[in-house]
Design brief:
Elements: H1 2-22, H2 32-41, E1 47-48, H3 60-69, E2 71-75, H4 81-92, E3 102-103, E4 112-116, H5 138-147, E5 157-160, H6 170-183, E6 188-192, H7 208-222, E7 225-227, H8 229-234, E8 252-253, E9 256-257, H9 258-265, H10 270-276, H11 300-316
Parallel strand pairs: 1-7, 2-4, 2-5, 3-4, 5-6, 6-7
Antiparallel strand pairs: 8-9
Helix pairs in contact: 1-2, 3-11, 4-11, 10-11
Length: about 325
């Protein structure tokens, strides 16, 4: 009975949110705690968030399928490069061999084909938040130009990231993403939230948290793929939440830096080893992490996003996210 009441309560909360949005109310409840419950009880399994920042949970076969079947175009500026930096740390981590290999040119056999900075004509979502002569955002025009070129016939995943999402029109972003989804139904388009800027859970219209919540709610309602960039940096690997504590993009919060603190407390964990390389032969740690390299151990931000990125690719390639057989995909390095 308690479970039934909880599900009914969650349904009512979601209904109230939808009514509020439909009547022009600027409230974007549910807040993060309620959002997590809604994801669990009602919504999508296509949201990649902090709970997915663990490559030990991914079967090696799913990684192989991703490398064999995905052809990804990814466009970003500096903040979006955090995914690439994290992937590079996995690619060069000695314990993994060539398991997490990827190739910008798509020419190396066995490596994931990911065209980094792969969409010409617009730098990122933030700089493309206008309407062009075609009546759409410049990044939509750039994406159309890419996908309409016969030489790009094999692309099946498109990803764009934000520089800063603050002050931008997230509803315009959603509407334009839906245009592309309708025009190219054979392509998987991945939505993305924006990084922390110290605003916390302020829901002022077009603020960071407001825009992120709007995107999350849309993706949950419509079953869209979402790489929840903001959620991944909002939680440490133990699940402690920092977004409401004036957190910034280098993991600083009102009392310190959670990345540095967590790495210091968990020196032998996989995220810490990926970030620092301490004690790992022939590996120097995550060599770059834009906007999150000071203090040095804050590069765990990129390590976690790199692991979550591979989780996304494994899911896009057909893995259902389920339990892994003992030893399958687990190289014996503790997450924490």
């Amino acid at each position: 009975m308690d479970s039934f009441r909880n599900r009914l309560l969650l349904f009512v909360v979601l209904l109230l949110v939808l009514v509020a949005l439909g009547t022009g109310c600027k409230s974007l409840a549910p807040e993060p705690e309620a959002r997590t419950k809604l994801e669990t009880e009602l919504a999508t399994d296509r949201v990649i968030d902090h709970t997915d920042a663990d490559v030990n949970s991914i079967p090696e076969g799913a990684i192989d399928r991703a490398a064999a079947n995905l052809h990804i175009a990814y466009q970003h500026t500096s903040h979006g490069s955090q995914l690439i930096s994290g992937m590079n740390s996995l690619k060069t981590f000695p314990k993994f061999g060539d398991l997490y290999d990827w190739d910008d040119a798509g020419a190396r056999w066995g490596a994931l084909d990911l065209d980094d900075y792969g969409i010409a004509g617009c730098a990122d979502l933030s700089q493309g938040d206008t309407i062009d002569e075609h009546g759409v955002t410049p990044w939509v025009t750039a994406t159309r130009n890419l996908l309409n070129d016969p030489s790009n016939w094999n692309i099946n995943v498109v990803m764009w990231s934000w520089c800063s999402i603050n002050g931008h029109d997230a509803q315009r972003y959603i509407d334009n993403m839906e245009l592309l989804i309708a025009e190219y139904p054979w392509i998987d388009f991945v939505f993305m939230t924006g990084h922390a800027e110290g605003q916390g859970e302020d829901l002022t219209e077009n603020s960071v948290h407001y825009n992120n919540q709007l995107i999350r709610l849309h993706c949950m309602e419509h079953g869209r793929w979402l790489f929840d960039f903001a959620d991944i940096e909002a939680y440490d690997p133990d699940g402690t939440y920092y977004w409401d504590r004036a957190m910034r993009d280098n993991l600083d919060y009102d009392e310190g830096n959670w990345g540095s603190e967590w790495v210091r407390a968990n020196p032998g964990s996989l995220p810490s080893l990926l970030a620092t390389g301490d004690g790992v032969a022939n590996y120097d740690g995550c060599e770059s992490c834009a906007h999150s390299a000071t203090p040095a151990s804050a590069t765990v931000n990129c390590a976690l996003k790199g692991m979550a990125t591979w989780h996304l690719f494994a899911r896009l390639a057909g893995w259902d996210g389920g339990d892994v057989d003992p030893g399958d995909g687990d190289l014996g390095i503790p997450v924490k």
